[in-house]
Amino acid sequence: MGITVRNVSKRFGEFVALDEVSLEIPNGSLTALLGPSGSGKSTLLRVIAGLEEPDAGEVVISGEDKTRTPPQRRGVGFVFQHYAAFKHMTVWENVAFGLEIRKRPKEQIRKRVGELLELVQLAGFAHRYPAQLSGGQRQRMALARALAIEPEVLLLDEPFGALDATVRKELRSWLRRLHEEMPVTTVLVTHDQEEAMEVANEIVVMNHARVEQVGTPEEIYESPASEFVMSFVGPVTRMRDALIRPHDVEILLDGDDSTVPAAVDGVLHLGFEVRVHLRLSGGEDLWAQIPRRTARELDLKPGDRVHVRASRSRTFA
Amino acid sequence: MSGGMLGRGVAITYLSLVVLIPLAAVAWASGEGGPGEFWSAVTTPEALSALRLTFGAALAVVAINAAMGTLIAWVLVRDSFRGRGLVNSIIDLPFALPTIVASLTLLVLYGPGSPVGIDVAYSPVAVVVALLFVTLPFVVRAVQPVLMELDTDMEEAAASLGAGRFTIFRRIILPNLAPAIFSGAGLSFARSIGEFGAVVLVTGNIPFETQVASVYIFGRIEGGDIPAAAAVSVVLLAFSLLALVGMNVLQGRWLRHEG
Ligand SMILES: Nc1ncnc2c1ncn2[C@@H]1O[C@H](COP(=O)(O)OP(=O)(O)OP(=O)(O)O)[C@@H](O)[C@H]1O
Ligand SMILES: [Mg+2]
User: Which residue has a Cα nearest atom 29 of ligand 1?
Assistant: First the structure.
């Protein structure tokens, strides 16, 4: 059940946008497709929705092969980054659109649209046009419109990408709550690792038209499968051949045989944490992120000689 | 006096000199003999016939242009084919060509001895064909930029909600193009009811048959009957204004829900 993508490839001319992508998205999950710009996230989402036809491979939704099914008959709700609001229709008409296409009875449409507007907190805005809404309201309208057809899967392409940071944060937690109330299989595209970690219970990391890793936010963060994943999902610094998270760099005043001598290059106060730039004896740079209290105890100043140790680090072939 | 007011003053004076005063003069000339004379001048059988032909042909032209102009704009924007750039530049030809040349071309092409075997010269059909030729660019050029700006997201959203191609066209694309179609159609109408050069050769100007209002006016002036010419002119003027005002009102209503 859920969504299965099997060996899907897609080229645009010579350019390979998806390279034999396989993916299993469990029923009822909220999955984030995470990856840098151009990695093929939107293309994969559009292939699942039927808006783009793959050159090879198959797409199975709820156990049915939908590879050749047009978007109209996939039962997929799609939310676009730039809302794709029907600008000549009111909020009400936008949300009712899919139901009218399905020729549902008037009374049923009225009831369902009312409920959906309630759900996305737009009940008072039914008769406004999209141009009279804020970005966040427009996006909630787009979500209600996609949910109206009771889709088997909900696909969101960077739904909060065009919104400012505060509204983004609000909508993220709202989306999480919504998904708990109404567990439709949902795939959310984002290039923001924090957003993926915060919203999704499963993350698919993409890079260069391929899937790099699939896992829970914790798995992805704690045991990244590649150097790319490790550096994409959080800050990294390098110590010799190993990659290390800056908050796994320990700074000590006295060395032992597990430490490496280093010199303090600079100290930056970031509020809650302090970033320390260091230079190893071999001349390599590295940085550490340490709690404010630890920083105060160490009382570091540029030029100080210290010793560093990686409490956890990883080496990739 | 602020710069804004100066600008406005100059603009209004200029418009008055170029547009309003001549129009007022025509209106005044038409009313010289009083309303009774005005009415009888525009209701002579010959004048009525010319007006009827003019408006009938203009309405036919508007309907055809609205449909074909939209179709041409669609093909130019959404299709890619060899020679699209060439077709695109040909669209403006009717504007660039002196209308009398257009009329001559049409006469050669669709007149007696037509190389394509179509002889419609000296018939009401010739009026419509000539008007279609000179008004071709209006709807195409009004719709084209709107269609280019229309992002396909809306259409894809409609498709994922279950709408088929025809429904998408009718419920998503057409409503977004409608203001542009109306605007192009309004201009075609205004241009059609006043066109002289393009129709004068190919129609033969047979009274009660192929004589349009502008040619009728020309005939009255030649015959020295200025008040009659002015009276019919005022009727054309009034309808042109009505078309343009109606167009603006409709557009204003549409633009209100645009962002
Ligand atoms: N219709 C198209 N024609 C040609 N190339 C395309 C088309 N759609 C996408 N591409 C290319 O495919 C690659 C992947 O695009 P895609 O939109 O899937 O990336 P993305 O991961 O969603 O990136 P972003 O985060 O910037 O949205 C890009 O390099 C893009 O230029
Ligand atoms: Mg994208």
Answer: A38
